[in-house]
Amino acid sequence: MAERIEQRLEDRIPELEQLERVGLFTHKEIRAVLRKASALEYKIQRRALRKEDFINYIQYEVNLLELIKKRRARIGYSFKKDEIEHSILHRVHSLFNRATGKWKDDVQLWLSHVAFCKQWNAKHQLSKVFSTMLAIHSNKPALWIMAAKWEMETRLSSESARHLFLRALRFHPECPKLYQEYFRMELMHAEKQRKEKKEFEQAKMDLGEFNYSEEILNGEMARIVYRDASQKIKGVEFQLAVLSIAKLFDFTQDLQKEILESLQARYADDPLTWDYMARRELELGSLQPTEHTTKQKKVSEMAQREERCCAVFDEAVGAVPTEDMWKCYITFCLERYNRKTNSEELKQKRLERTLSVFSKAHESNLLSEALYKQWLQLLLDSSLSEKAVEVAEAATRLFSQSVEMWQMRLRVLIQLERDDVSQCFEEAVKHVKSKGTLPLWTLWVEWSEGTNSKEDTEAVYQRSLHATTPAESVTMKEMYLDWTYRNSGYKKVKRLFTSLCENRPFSLDFFRKMIQIEKEQESCKMLHLREYYERALREFGSTNTDLWLDYIKEELSHPQGKPENCGSIHWRAMKMLQGDLVEDFVSKYTLLQTGHL
């Protein structure tokens, strides 16, 4: 092994001598490079190889290349690149080849090699990397697409790109993304040939020796790809994806027409088809020239376009009366309403249209829970409070099990300061199951704190402890403790704490809150603090190191504390803490003893 490493280091000497001779590196730096290279070589020649060692070696070589590049730019020296950089590049490729040969399944390693090749313009090497990588990872369409795009865009070889896509489709005959990118590639190829032909014609050159097929120039290859794909891949999403790609090219009108006809014929009942057809009305209007038109005329044209879109949507919800179809219609209306405009008339028209569509969907019983929330928010933003109350009530009738829907209704009532808030809270907790009701109870007590008497609020807190699940009651206990201290003082909160401690579970914040309350008293008693810490440690002593350390600090710093107790607390912590927490506790305790914590 040592002989092999020595040989590798000797192979470096010519490039290092050149670096020193041309003044890019000093003799001291050359020696440092040799030492580092020697250490890295030994690591990758061991019997038990580690991926990290190869990555570190590659990173070191890449950093070295970057440093050489910067030094060259600084001194303005651009010669001897074959003797210096070429040697390092060859070594990095060898390291990558060894690493990817050993860890074939690591896609990130392959992609790092690809990125390196692109960065240093190693086209021949990159072609080999793609070939090897795709032989191993043929099950990943994204890698095929990456390789084909490189062939098309960097090497300008549409033939190689087409060959890669055809190979990929043998492995993934029903992959929509592969077909989309293949379709795009064929259109790019056609566009490239059209530009070449146009330039030759402008230069009045003889096209006899160049074979420009009219079919290819008109995107016939892309049409074949589309037809083949549409037989294998079902779904309107694919049709819309290829249509959006075709629209990027100005010579595909016939192809777009064919895709559109297929879309309407095969997916007439799909909401996405109608959504596209409706939104298309906006684009058709925008194709007309808009120069020398007044602002009022532009607003009028936009309003007309939106009306045409809505006419298509109205037809759609009649032909396909589903929740998804109404969602598409409402989403369109909301998008138009949220668009900025200086015309108050247009904004008002958009608002009225949106609210009208919401009402129609509600009457058809085809409005989802999420859309009810959006409707309510829109009504509140538009100061239509009475309508908001009516809609909120209807929504909770339809989605009586939804906590969020009840929350929304209650917030509306609270915001409007209605008298029936308490009644609505009672109705909500009656309909909703105990699990997940925490948001309702927190909202109730927050509202009660600001509106009702102490007795009523305390009654709500007491009810919440029994009505919520044990895990959710933890939060209510914390809130109850805090509210009691703020409103009834120390003695009452101490009694409440003792009472609440009778029923598990607890949170750490529950105990910390009580410890903080005790410390805020003028006559803070260590006896009480010990009680609270001991209760907390019974629950969380095995999983929390900070709690033990805080207890020790309290004994050391409190006027009534007993520093002699710290030893026994430390011993108990060592016995009680689990796993790595013992080591963590020891480290922190040492820092505490030395005054660094």
From TrEMBL:
What's the chief localization of this chain?
nucleus
Q: Can you quote a single GO CC term?
A: Pwp2p-containing subcomplex of 90S preribosome
One GO BP annotation is: maturation of SSU-rRNA from tricistronic rRNA transcript (SSU-rRNA, 5.8S rRNA, LSU-rRNA)
Q: Which residues form the U3 small nucleolar RNA-associated protein 6 homolog C-terminal domain?
A: 307-577
Name the keywords, alphabetized. Answer: Nucleus, Repeat, rRNA processing
Which Gene Ontology molecular-function terms are recorded? snoRNA binding
Superkingdom in the source lineage: Eukaryota
- Residue limits of the U3 small nucleolar RNA-associated protein 6 N-terminal domain? 9-91
Q: Which InterPro entries match?
A: HAT (IPR003107), TPR-like_helical_dom_sf (IPR011990), Utp6 (IPR013949), UTP6_C (IPR056907), UTP6_N (IPR055347)
* Cellular location(s): Nucleus, Nucleolus
Pfam families assigned: U3_assoc_6, UTP6_C
Which PANTHER family has this protein been placed in?
Answer: HEPATOCELLULAR CARCINOMA-ASSOCIATED ANTIGEN 66, U3 SMALL NUCLEOLAR RNA-ASSOCIATED PROTEIN 6 HOMOLOG
Recorded family membership: Belongs to the UTP6 family.
Q: What is this protein called?
A: UTP6 protein
- Name the species this protein comes from: Urocynchramus pylzowi
What lineage is on file?
Answer: Eukaryota, Metazoa, Chordata, Craniata, Vertebrata
